[in-house]
Amino acid sequence: MRRGNVYQIANGYMGYRGTLDEFTSEQLVGITLAGIFDRVGPAWREPVNAPNGGFTSVSLGGAELSALGNKVTRHRQTLRFGNALFERQTSFAFKGTTLTVRSARFLSAETPNLGVIRFSITCSRAATVTVRTGIDGNIWDLNGPHLLGLAATRRDSVLFVEGRTNESSKRVAVAETADIDFGKVTYESRGNRSLRVVHLRAEAGTTYTFHKYFAVFTDNDAVRGSVAEAAIETVLQARSLGYEDCLARHGARWQEKWNRSDVTIEGDDEAQLALRYSILQLLMVAPVKGSANSIPARALSGQVYKGAIFWDTEMFMFPFFIHTYPEKAVELMRYRIKTLDGARRKAKTEGRGYRGAFYAWESQETGDDACTYYNIGDPSTGRALRTYFRDKQVHISGDVAIAMWDYFRLTGDDSLLLEGGAEVILECARFYYSYAYYKDEKRRYEILDVIGPDEYHERVNNNAFTSMVAKETFTIAIATVNHLRRRHPKELRTLLKKLRIEGELPAFRDAARRLFIPGADAKTGIIEQFDGYLGLRESSVKELKARMIHPDEYLGAGQGLAVPTKIIKQADVVMMLNLFRTRFSAEIKRANWEYYEPRTEHGSSLSACAYAMVAAEFGNLDFAYKYFLKTAKIDLEAKYKVYVGSVFMGGSHPAANGGAWMTAVLGFGGVHADEKRVAINPRLCRKWRRLQFHLAYKGDDFRMNITKNSVTVASSRANTRVHAVLVAGKPVKCSPGRPVTVRYRQAR
Ligand code: IFM
To answer: How far is it, in rounded angstroms, from Cα 54 to Cα 323?
Structure first.
């Protein structure tokens, strides 16, 4: 299971778990498709897995070989970061013959529907070998089967499997072809499998190689004609191009991706590897251009967590894309525009009924909430636990609004605001206004009955993070209106009329001023996470763990062990300090970090990077480094919880991948960009001698080169204007093609 995640490949359209060619649904082969979901019976809706067009098995003397069932003398598998190429080499020792299988697989970065495989076999002695290759329609599903009426057919040398989703009858078609020029080929259609069988008398020492091309199309693809024809045409085109050409084109796209997003660390190979792996994960799962898809919390590593999109995307992944690859960031935002109606439906129907846009806690293709009211099972009793993630984790709407506004602030491109972004922001503000209470006696608004990022304390009042995010949403809504009034008055009039919202703007202004945020204690500097938090029982993570009766026991919900205590699941106040980093002093950051850190379980993969970044800001670089590594290595080492309660959660962690990038560039690199300029205030950790990275800002491109005592900002030759950059507090002008170096002294 874990290796399948570590070696997975993806291209935004689909993910392919890092399983071996001969594996089947039993070994959890999964080709998970982005943006297409299905539900069977009362089980969770989840993304659809496609039939496996990458299947190949080899038989020697009639016995089918598998790396899991046979004697293997050598096995090696590789994931190439440069072009997301998965390779394996396995030598089987069987009845006196050594048969070596080599394969290389990629999901095309140029043609998103396409997968390409090179496969070869070599025998140490002459032997009778049978190769079965084609499409395996026996699909691994968590809550399936999702594809009904799966039929395996063939047109000449093209194999083909098609089915329809259970819920909305969307077609999912897979075509496959191969260029086999050895042995005798016959065809076999067994159940859901459509295979080509190659009978070969293999000579000793000769390598037999073929290439396989498979394509997946669904009714979500805008194709002329049928999805079947599109799939067939795609594999035929790929075959006529050939493996090397397909790979070269794919590689060129990957080169482009790395040119934009790579980060170089000198002096620390471990950190370099882990960070590059994290960046690779993000680049692989970034949505396809024009898809308006987003990235689920477990990316495309399977159907885990319902393939749902959480706040993880806006708060942890979006920063990577907006700072390096805005063309991908825009897709993430278009997804929220596309699902605005779902958010409106949720607002209307949730709780006492609200107005505006209450985004889904777990969002799928329509924006309706996939999160259930009883979202976690108790592993000891088997009972479903009521969790309030769906109805009370209201910060999600503000997280979306903040990212939407950041897209405009950091790209300078207001077209997205006009294409639905402004509507999203105004509707989120409207939601918070309908959710907030006005306390007459205190002359302030309060946001009550919520869950903040710390999910162990449900239904709390005045959660600092949530209130801050809500307040920011009001400010952003007013700023949006002001911007449109200046630049696009006609479009603003149309929008205000459409939403009938003009009369509500004064209220938003008022809430932007008078919404209550818990402040820092005058003596200790501590910000109370929510009303009453400081009065909860002291405990320790160790103590709670010792009291657990089941290793997967959930510590929150109604009766969880953490509920009456100060133990929190993940960064909450610290998350706020990080998100609004310019608004709090280093002293406040330190005080709260030191208070909350020993009380944090880090039970979510989202937690460590927030602690790392805030530690970097107030100067605890060793701690920042420790948590940076924890974040950056989570998927590479595959050390994570696989069950929460009785719910299977195993899969990759793109939010942590984004957190690793944020810690390196925004934390240690000290980059802070706003609408006015980019500021850099580096705090390199001990081991790092040099940190280099790219930055995209307002349509231009920069290369930063940071050492312990100098920062070089190279504004790309193709940039269009001079930018003012603040380096370690010193303003410098950066002209296209003229690198500027500033010497500085790193704060201790
Ligand atoms: O969004 C997170 C949440 O903050 C903690 N539980 C897991 C979710 C998905 O990663």
So the answer is: 35
